[in-house]
Design goal:
This protein is mainly alpha-helical. The protein has 4 helices and 3 strands, in the order E-H-H-H-E-E-H. The chain has a 3-stranded mixed beta sheet with strand order 1-2-3.
Length: 130
């Protein structure tokens, strides 16, 4: 079955961008809380925070500049976006798969930094010693 052009998305839904931003903010806050123990570490975390800001800013700027509307003139719901195809360089995938692929890396980073920080804090506090 041939795909209609309207059913192929080329950009992320604002909700996907929001979740991306949330996971990056979570990562920066977790890094600050767990690892900002001295001045040098704080400086490095500020550098990482600016890199995270760049990670967030680029897709948000492209989305804001696109000015794209749905054919009906109303914003497309997230459920509708998930059901459409998403265009990649190599073909198309389902919107649901595109959202999962876009969110898996920042979510994994946020969870990892939180778990590693908690383990480092737990070991450093001596809670695991007899």
């Amino acid at each position: 079955m041939a795909e209609r052009y309207e059913d192929v998305e080329t950009g992320f839904h604002p909700r996907v961008l929001f979740w991306m931003a949330l996971t990056v903010v979570w990562t920066v806050i977790a890094a600050w809380l767990w690892f900002a123990v001295d001045t040098y570490a704080r400086i490095m975390i500020v550098v990482v925070a600016f890199a995270a800001l760049g990670f967030l800013a680029v897709p948000l700027i492209f989305w804001a500049l696109s000015g794209r509307q749905s054919p009906t003139g109303r914003p497309e719901s997230f459920g509708e976006w998930l059901r459409h195809r998403f265009a990649l360089w190599t073909g198309t995938i389902e919107g649901r798969d595109a959202a999962i692929n876009a969110l898996i890396a920042p979510a994994a980073a946020a969870i990892t930094i939180t778990v590693v920080g908690f383990i480092a804090w737990h070991v450093g506090s001596g809670a695991g010693s007899p």
